[in-house]
């Protein structure tokens, strides 16, 4: 029986030594994971010269160039990445939009997010991040537009809350940057109103922080209450304990990408839904242990048990499942 010959990889007319691409890929991905982006980019470019359509390497190159602030090249890489059909399309699109914002391609961001929302492509648990990006994009876009002759009239809060949640968010994101200080009291009342959506409260707090609102605001979400000063708050993606929890879980699941991806997604949802809370009274290790138990239960079918963190995960999931935009 004739032995099956291994297919050789070629670069032009030159035969590439076996293992060359794999070595470049491993070294490039390791450099990205260790945040050595200046070393990662040339390794990944060289690997892509052998396999130009490799989605995993295009994604890694996009991340490296974004972190190096080489946004023009990062955008080109992101477009190639999206065309290659990445496994995590939504995350790839999120990265592409972030690059476009850095390049001030505001019309591209607005058109893309609007199309994704209209076509129902974005999963329910990721809509808040895209709405957040849309709002940020509109804020930045407004800085380069001429201000209108007269400011928009503030709505009545009770009337505002009768609007569909998506319309409420759109209304806030359309307020020009220079008018936001006049909306301070309205936004503070919105953030503290029991009838407002948790995500809308998050957006209100982010806007208040942006205008340097220094008066205390009492926020209630999922049975937790806290009085905060918006100008002192970090952004949803900069919450310290949430970052520590994510790092611990990535360590737990370093050999299991599926579970790691679920952990990252659950924490992303938590950041934007429960903001500004960070599991009061619990350490990052305790929170991470609860998330670890919950994620394992999703795979083995066991009962995750009763725990404040797990109860909150379930409450957030129920909230998202019951949303009407």
The biggest beta sheet reads: 2 strands, antiparallel
Supply the CATH class of the largest domain: Mainly Alpha
Annotation, overall tally of beta strands = 4
Q: H/E element string?
A: EEHHHHHHHHHHHEEHHHH
Task: Report the CATH superfamily of the largest domain.
Answer: Tetratricopeptide repeat domain
Helical residue percent band: 55-70%
User: Ranges with pLDDT <50 over ≥5 residues?
Assistant: 3-8, 10-15
Strand order of the largest sheet: 1-2
How many individual helices? 15
Indicate the overall shape. Answer: globular
Distance between the termini: 64 Å
| CATH architecture descriptor name of the largest domain | Alpha Horseshoe
The number of distinct structural domains comes to: 3
Radius of gyration: 23 Å
Classify the beta-strand content into a percent band.
Answer: under 5%
**What is the CATH T-level topology of the largest domain?**
Serine Threonine Protein Phosphatase 5, Tetratricopeptide repeat
Structural class: mainly alpha
**What number is the mean pLDDT?**
86
Summarize the structure.
The protein is mainly alpha-helical.
Q: Any overview of this molecule?
A:
InterPro entries: TPR-like_helical_dom_sf. By secondary structure, the chain is mainly α. The chain folds into 3 domains: 16-141, Serine Threonine Protein Phosphatase 5, Tetratricopeptide repeat (Alpha Horseshoe), CATH 1.25.40.10; 165-233, no CATH class; 237-321, Cyclin A, domain 1, CATH 1.10.472. Helix content is 59%, strand content 4%. It has helices at residues 20-33, 37-50, 55-67, 71-83, 89-102, 106-118, 127-142, 157-160, 165-173, 184-191, 198-210, 240-252, 257-274, 284-300, 308-321; strands at 10-11, 14-15, 217-221, 224-228. The longest helix is centred in the C-terminal third of the chain and has 18 residues, at 257-274.
